[in-house]
Design a protein that fits this description.
This protein is an alpha/beta fold and about 290 residues long. The protein is built from seven helices and 13 strands. It has helices at about 1-10, 40-55, 75-85, 105-110, 155-165, 180-190, 235-245, and strands spanning about 30-35, 60-65, 90, 110-115, 125-130, 135-145, 170-175, 195-200, 210, 215-220, 225, 260-265, 275-280. Mean pLDDT is about 90; it is low at about 1-15 and about 20. The chain binds fe (ii) ion (FE2) (2 copies). The site of one fe (ii) ion (FE2) has 6 residues, from loops.
């Protein structure tokens, strides 16, 4: 981890990426940003986006927003702000329903997705399609079943979700799960059938980003966009007090050492990835 961070800090000033320009009918690049935590994460994301757009010229930008409203959930106002900033779609997770005001929005806004394997009776939907330059990217949100509350199996419901997407050139699956085993298994299960499987939820980036045997890009966890100085987003003294005393402690979002964490996937063939690159970047104005 220390080496990866050092590499990110050593990165030279922004330079346009020659590989990012589409060269074939299915050529695309997908920027996926891990769980954005609170206002500090939102500001880090919005300030980093111009840098990332110049460096990578992504065709699509997808963000996991399950922690963006004060650390838990998302509101319609914040979701609108992200979409207005040019983010193509927002994925969610176990904190989807923390804010009651998002329920109707989840039903009416096609470009925000909650796990497809929640119950059908729960607000929202689990898939969407976004389009740029004639290229269609299907997006699927899934929840793991181990230690998380999801009404149906991710492994059976993914088939329904993929069928729902119809004809698209690329598919991104956000597998929001606690257990690494479920995420690794989903990567292999979908290898060759989707463009990329990204893991989210733990807020800690893993070092296993790679393209699998049949061409699907994969990472077990992208990490979070938020304060590295806390405990997965929470002020560290509060998290430690809770663990020490075993008593209820009010949690607030840490503001210390905000970073953006994401991945950039490059593709030249339909449903295949050429590469996946980890992005670990301090907030531009805090650098
Ligand atoms: Fe999260
Ligand atoms: Fe989560």
């Amino acid at each position: 981890m220390a080496e990866a961070q050092a590499a990110a800090e050593d990165r030279p000033a922004v330079s346009p990426d020659p590989q990012a320009r589409p060269a074939s009918p299915a050529a695309a690049s997908i920027l996926f940003v891990g769980d954005v935590v609170g206002g500090i994460g939102r500001r880090t994301l919005l300030e980093s986006l111009p840098v990332l757009r110049e460096r990578y010229t992504p065709t699509f930008v997808i963000v996991n927003g399950e922690n963006i409203a004060g650390g838990l959930g998302i509101t319609p106002k914040i979701a609108d702000e992200l979409l207005a900033a040019g983010i193509d779609a927002i994925t969610l997770g176990n904190h989807t329903y923390h804010r009651r005001e998002i329920y109707a929005y989840l039903d009416s806004q096609p470009r925000i997705v909650r796990p497809a394997n929640f119950l059908r009776s729960q607000p929202g939907h689990g898939t969407c399609v976004v389009e740029h330059d004639g290229l269609r990217l299907g997006i699927v949100s899934l929840s793991g079943n181990l230690y998380l509350r999801a009404g149906r199996s991710a492994f059976t419901e993914i088939e329904v979700a993929l069928a729902d997407l119809g004809a698209v050139e690329h598919i991104l699956v956000d597998m929001h799960a606690e257990a690494t085993s479920e995420k690794v298994a989903m990567g292999w299960h979908l290898d060759g059938r989707v463009t990329v499987v990204v893991g989210t939820h733990t807020h800690v980036p893993t070092a296993d980003a790679r393209v699998l045997e049949k061409g699907t890009a994969y990472i077990t966890d992208v990490g979070m966009t938020g304060p590295r100085g806390g405990v997965i987003g929470v002020k560290r003294d509060q998290a430690i007090k809770s663990l020490l005393t075993q008593m209820p402690v009010r949690f607030e979002t840490s503001e210390e050492d905000p970073w953006l964490m994401g991945v950039l996937i490059r593709c030249s063939q339909p449903m295949r990835a050429d590469s996946i690159e980890q992005i670990l970047m301090p907030r531009p104005t805090a650098a």
